[in-house]
Structures are given as C-alpha cells and as structure tokens.
Amino acid sequence: FLAQLDTKKYNVLKLDYLNRTNDPPIPILIEKNE
Question: Cα separation of 30 and 9, whole Å?
Fold first, then answer.
C-alpha cells in the first residue's frame, strides 16, 4: 500500500494521517520515508 504511493502523495497523506490519531503507525512509517 505505502510502496504504491508516490512521494508527492506521502506529504498529503501525512497531513491527513496526522489529523487522524486513530492510526499512529501509518504516519510514523511515512515520516521515516522522508
């Protein structure tokens, strides 16, 4: 799932996930990719 996303989309998803405190592990993985 994460591998299929583009780096440009990661920034948008990161902001979206940060707003969602329901899934903490997802934003952490995205931050590591940066």
Answer: 10
Among 3, 4, 30, residue whose Cα is nearest residue 16: 30
Which range of residues forms the domain containing residue 24? 1-34
Tens of pLDDT, residue by residue, the chain (34 residues): 555 656 666 666 666 666 665 555 555 555 555 4
Work out how many domains the chain is built from and give that number: 1
Q: Is the pTM of this model over 0.85?
A: no
d(CA 27, CA 9): 13
